[in-house]
Amino acid sequence: MTTQSLPARPSGLGRSVSDALVITWRNLKRVPRIPELAIFAILQSIMFVLLFAFVFGGAIPLPGFESDPGAYREFLLPGIFAQTVAFAAATTAIGITDDINKGLIDRFRSLPMARSAVLVGRILADVVYNAGILVVPMVSGLVVGWGVSTDVLSFLAGFGLLLLFAMAMSAIGVWLGMMVPTVEVANQVAFTTIFPITFISNVFVPPQTLPDFLRPVAEWNPVST
Amino acid sequence: MPEVAERLVAAHSGTSRAFARGGQPAIVAEGLTKIYRSRKSEVRALDGVDLTVDEGTVLGLLGPNGAGKTTTVRILATLLKPDAGRATVAGYDIATQADELRGVIGLSGQYAAVDENLTARENLWMFGRLYQLRSAEATSRASELLEEFELGDAADRVVKTFSGGMRRRLDLAGALIGRPRLLFLDEPTTGLDPRGRMGMWDVIRGLVRDGTTLLLTTQYLEEADELADTIAVVDHGKIIARGTADELKSQVGGERIEVVVRERDDIARAVELLTATGGDEPSVDEHTRRITIAATGGADRLIGVLRDLDEANIAIDDIGLRRPTLDDVFLSITGHATEEAAAENGDSAS
After folding, report:
1. Domain boundaries, chain A
2. Contact B118, B193 (CB under 8 A)
3. The pTM is what?
4. Mean pLDDT, rounded, for A156-174
5. Cβ of residue B157 closer than 8 Å to a chain A Cβ
6. Cβ A106–B18 below 8 Å, yes or no?
7. Cα B236 to chain center, whole Å?
8. Selected residue of B7, B132, B133 to mutate for chain A interface (largest A Cβ count, 10 A)
9. Which of A202-216, B114-128, B334-348 has the lowest mean pLDDT?
């Protein structure tokens, strides 16, 4: 009965992929338009590297490496990478809440597009964004004395794992963004959940030093590297 | 590209191909009901709305804020599921054929839903792609619409820098990019300045001339009068009146004379004078000393009233002829003013 359907309307997987890519394009296009967002994400990761490498680093002895101050930096950096990725989820949550409140999601929902594309596109864009942002703590890590101690292949595998983690965190960010009513709340909720998650881990301190009840939390924390 | 030409015909004539679907009206809704529940209360946003919109015509949903206009549009555009009732749009069932339905409608909402951080052109291209146009087609269609809506000069500027009127035009262009057969416009001019409103009316009139079927919501009787073939008046989730603009206006009684007398004590005498020459019971606002009465006879009647008042030595602050508003429609249909108007008067009194 649908004799009047528009010509060449792809459906199924082809449409899902092409719509998701359009939304990915849209989300990435926004990054340079709000440079503050990326700049502060970058500054933040540099700040954490410097803060922990030089301010707290001396005060946190690594069991077994007490005599080697460089060991802490070596220990810290992978955690900072994970933290950078985790914090990006807050940006995701805020972005999604904003889209909902501005009516953009309604517009998308009224279009004959794949329902999955808004979320998949957002997550894909986040992974690309994170890959770009991660370069910064890596470079600042090199400056303070971190280095790739294994071969290139394991480094790439590690990087890939980080991006998978970015994907998971982005999905959490999307979920948070959909649950909360306003951008301000998204901001609050994202930070009050993500902050402890990154700190109750082995990022900044060896889990052996944590109280008994926190140690298993840290050991099982996905942020722990 | 023959299929493009075909689509042009379908979108812009709004007749032949659409009527090929068995002459069904573009929108049929029966008993649409939507209830918003919270822990404490239950609001019947829609309470059994029936609607029919014929292909190629314009229906204006007229009502105050919170009457259920937006809820109706959201249900028909598949953004919201009704709690009861059924509807077909362009022959597609809103519940079971949502995806097909979205392919033939355009929605432009109350809040301009465009991406602020993209340029006008990028926004349109994106919407075009999501309407499943090919990239090249989306590009050319975007350029076309930008010119048509006088956004050509601003096409490559980020939307953040746009004025309200420009945003609204872009939003509408976004709804048109897939050449929809049916267009939903939810309060297209709310919040625009008079010039922006006039511009928007011109654009909408152009669409109507080209045969687009349109469902338009508005708070302004004047706007519904300008743009709609038929008007349905909505209040508390129900349609309380429907008809052409003329039918509604004759029910309301044409223009109004408004007099503001200087002294409160003169109100009674003025009312007596105004009703002596015939006409309905006037409405009187004691606080603002404003008397409003239906004025058959227009300007002549106004001159007569002025003379009468002068002879009776009743000093006035203001007098004028005005066209009926939504409030007058409400007053004559329901016997009460819109709740907003009541609230406003309450505010001015306190």
Report:
1. 15-58+68-220
2. no
3. 0.78
4. 89
5. no
6. no
7. 16
8. B132
9. B334-348
Contact B130 A109 (CB under 8 A): no
Which residue, B249, B282, B309, sits at the end of a domain?
A: B249
CA A221 to chain centre: 15
Could you give the CA distance from residue B40 to residue A71 in angstroms, rounded to a whole number?
A: 59
Nearest to B59 by CA among B233, B214, B235, B267: B214
- What is the per-residue burial (b if ≥16 Cβ within 10 Å, else e) of B250-271? eebbebbbbbbbeeeebbeebb
Q: List the structure tokens of A77.
A: 């950096």
The CATH number given to whatever domain includes residue B330 is: 3.30.70.100
Contact between B66 and B110 under an 8 Å Cβ cutoff? The reply is no
Residues of the domain holding B73: 2-249
The shortest C-alpha distance from A170 to chain B (Å) reads 20
Structure tokens at B236: 């508390």
Same domain for B260 and B245, yes or no, is: no
Q: Which of B102, B111, B129 sits opposite A110 (nearest CB)?
A: B102
- Three-class SS of residue B32? strand
Mean local confidence (pLDDT), A59-75 = 70
Mean predicted confidence (pLDDT) in A117-139: 89
Residues in chain A closer than 8 A to B158 (CB atoms): 33
Q: What is the mean pLDDT of chain A?
A: 82
pLDDT score of B342 more than 70: no
| B277 and B206 within one domain | no
**Interface with A, mutate which of B16, B73, B122, B129 (most A CBs under 10 A):** B129
DSSP string covering A132-145: HHHHHHHHHHHHHT
Within the 17-46 window of chain A, which residues sit less than 8 Å (CB to CB) from chain B? 18-19, 22, 25-26, 29-30, 33-34
Q: What is the pLDDT of residue B186?
A: 93
Among B219, B234, B249, the domain-final residue is B249
For residues A174 and B342, the model is more confident at A174
Same domain, B227 and B276: no
Separation between Cα atoms, residue A131 and residue B75, nearest integer Å: 41
Inter-chain touch B126–A2, beta carbons under 8 Å: no
Instruction: Say if residue B245 is in the same domain as residue B258.
Output: no
Residue B72 — very low, low, confident or very high, per pLDDT cuts 50/70/90?
A: very high
